[in-house]
Structure prediction request, 340 residues.
Amino acid sequence: MKNKILLTGDRPTGPLHIGHYAGSIKNRIEMQKEFETFIMVADAQAITDNYDNVAKIRENVYEVVADYLACGIDPAQANIFVQSMIPELPELTQYLLNLVSINRIGHNPTVKAESRQKGYEESVPAGFYLYPIFQVADIIAFDADVVPVGRDQAPMLELARDVAGKFNAQYGDSILVEPEALFPEMVINLPGIDGNKMSKSLGNAIYLKDSREVIAKKMKKMKSDPTRASISDPGDPDKAIAFTYLDIFDKDVEGVAQLKKEYRAGGLGDGVIKQRALEVVDAFIAPIRKRREEIIADTALIEKVLAAGTAAAREKSHKTLKRCKEAMGLNYDFLSLVTS
Prediction:
């Protein structure tokens, strides 16, 4: 499968949390063995709604890469690169914008939902509004055969397929790869401590760099079954977030099952469940945290990884852009007169 290309990535708006690990990084560690892998640190995309704090984006590029390496992303198998260092991407975006309507972008459910969440209403920044087509260019530039996504991101892949198909129909067959969505079988949507989707912006995340003390404080705030008036009352494990963490990280399946039985019967305090969740989550994060501390202190190592990955990404995207421009007839050669 190494002859197939996979593209994925993250916005560097903060360090990564255990929701990232459960939902994507764990799968990437396995997929990097099977595919030619490009992992994009999407700093340019992150600026679309962080234009007033670009320094935060730059700082978190290093944080995200440290998380990748500490978790097991192998730079010998995966090209980790910085989006803004690939000038071919905005140029390709300029050409692809002509193949999609404003109306189509506006109906993208992610754009609509995030615009409401951010309170943009009628004042949506153009960069943010158009980011779906920037994502399409990111995918197309690397001839990505597959892009691992959640079901909610399927419309973005469908847009990429449509744009690549229109380009091929207009300028020649098989110039651009029409990517396929890859829905990993073991995607885990780990909730935040408040029960909502784990998110840096909501402040409900447990980060891969968190100390035991920090994790303990967050666990105490973890949402429990709101219908229980006292410990003696029966509880619903499905409404207690700590049980979700035990289901994912606790290897003692029978022990967790017994705790659920006692919780349903009443008499088992939430503090007991949260303490056990603290133990298993900290045991999982501890080795990652230790490796991460060493990596984040070695700026030269991070930059070496990014230099190699970005060089490979430049080479790949340049070939795609050159192929596109030749198909469109934008392959002028008069500059040779200046250099001759």
Observations:
- The chain has a mean pLDDT of 92.
- The longest helix spans residues 299-328.
- Strands lie at 5-10, 36-41, 78-82, 146-148, 180-182.
- The chain is about 55% helix and 5% strand.
